[in-house]
Amino acid sequence: MNANSERILTYMFENRRQYSIPVYQRNYDWKRDNCVTLFDDIKNLINTEKKHFLGTIVQVSLEEKNGIKRYLIIDGQQRFTTLFLLIKALRDSTVKESEQELCDEKLFNIDKFKDWSQDEQSRLKLKPIKTDNEQLLLLMAGNIEAMDKSSNIYLNYDYFLKLIKELLATGITVRDFMNGMDRLECVMITLFEEKGDEPQVVFERINSTGLDLTLSDLIRNYILMTDEDAEHLYNEYWIKIENKLGRDTGTLSEYFIDYFNYLLPEQVYAKNAYDLFKKYALRSNLSHESILKGIYDSVEAYAAFIGKDNKYSEKINEKLSYFRSLKQSTIYTFLLNVFSDFDNGVISEDVLCELLDFFISYTVRRYITGVPSNSYRSFYKSLYKRVFDDESLRTEENYLKTIYSFMLQLNTKDAVPSNLQFESCLKTEKIYEKDARICKFLLCCIENYGSSEKVEANSLVTIEHIMPQSVQDNWKDEIGEDYDFVHEKYLHTLGNLTLTGYNSELGTKSFNEKVEMMKDKNSKMVTLNKDVYTATKWTKKSIEDRAERLASILLKAFPLPQLAEQIKFENIKDNALTYNDVDKVRGTKPTSFICLGERVLVDSWSDMLTKLFNVLYELDSARLEECAKEKFKLEHADKVYITYDVNDLRKPYEIKNSGILIETNLSSTNILSFIRETFDKYNLSDDDFIFYIE
Fold first, then answer.
1. Residue 270: CB partners within 8 Å, gap ≥ 6?
2. Model pTM score
3. CA separation for the pair 594, 592 (Å, rounded)
4. Domain 582-693 fold
5. pLDDT of 116-131, one tens digit each?
């Protein structure tokens, strides 16, 4: 490996060079802001002796071909491609032949004496990945009209033309600008694979000034960078994954997190996903193609989950849209298992739809009854394996019965809320205040229940408070002397909410005026407004009676399954203990624990403590950093338990080379107290951590 400081224009754009962007790199992504910054940096270098550092560029030296020195750019393609487009824009902005020739020398390998057996492929000094290369070839051929006007190749070239035109009007020449460009410097790292250099390792460690790498970038590079058949893998799998999910790196990364939670035993987050993926790739002994095929096999189902594919029937797609309306994406890990069974013919569409209905109902019930959502991810990660621990139950005949039996026997905070809990909270919870979007979804469900004409939650209808949000004298008279109490308690509850297309017109009008307008303009809301239309006054009793009626509809819309008999799940928590079971641990030894769905084997109390804190650090390092700064102590205790200072502890343990130290010289009961109070810092509960003893 060589590392040298180089002037980019002189070094990278010299004659007899070609730079290829390998298929594992992302598409050309630089936006206008990036281009403006680069352009301004170059302007400031004109007619000065200053230099400007543009970061590190990493290249892999390839075998020379047709007299051309060839390189792969594995870090720095965004900057190099942008400079290439800028030079092309400079060339097209001048009519002076000498200036055009100056630019051509940087853009093309010019074989004046026909010494290199040069072909069209080796003329251009830049060869981007396939989709970008098509646009670049059109640009270099002058076929601007045929270009995709939404591509960044076109957009940035076109923007540079405008910037250059404005600059040239001030008297600056193309040659002046090129001289400014020649003051851009970089650290050029050249790798030689035949000498044992590992591009993947260097790529991961390099601190680039380019765009931050996302999880999907890292995974793509890992799979394709070191594979001899990268072109095939890219075209056969990766580009199809992008076509299914879109090229938004956020969506791709979310898919990988959900897919790896589906695939791997560990709890996967954005922070640890890439490391866990690499460990899986190494220990599985699978080829890169097998790994990529596994990733691709789940993409179509996931695309349907997020509304980007209509692979399934209209009925299934509609039910999947409910999870999006309810903002319930953590179920996707579980659904990847279920849809795999469906796609493989284990269950029918009827079974699948009934199961989706149940989990829609479960989601609504948890939301209404106020069960915290922080356990969803770990719950859904482990649910499928826990339910179908006995493989013989995973059949068309037993599928629903098995899942329903398990869910209805849960007695943790993930338990299915009962009809009594659900109905009570429907009447009293301030659902609009909690989440207006989900509130609108529920109101649409009420209106659509038993109706052939559907109101869409994403339509132009809005939520209307029958008793208005702002305090008005006419409404004080309407409600009576306990108006303040009624307004505070019932304003955002189900009984006082409806849907309308005329929200801004209704405002704070009196009740009778609102009713007349709603009858006149909003007759579609028949179910929701049935008792509103017949009421003469709007009082506390009116709201309570209406809440009773609407709650009864939602109980029917989101029912619980009725089983003649259940499959018995003995010890559904496997005799697990929580940190509250202090009286049961003296003289025992832990064997394993589960934190947020991740099971970890341990051989002692201190081993359980240290491994648990490593999990917590991966979950949210900032929480532990805060504790360490504060020198965290247990309530009613003087000793420090978390710190940065080694002198504070008797037997310190450092968490993942972070500098954060925890005390490990503790009894089993003190360890459980330590865990309990740390979990309070994380807003986690005893259900999020269970452990087993010998």
1. 215, 253, 257
2. 0.70
3. 7
4. Replication modulator SeqA, C-terminal DNA-binding domain (1.20.1380)
5. 666 666 688 888 766 7
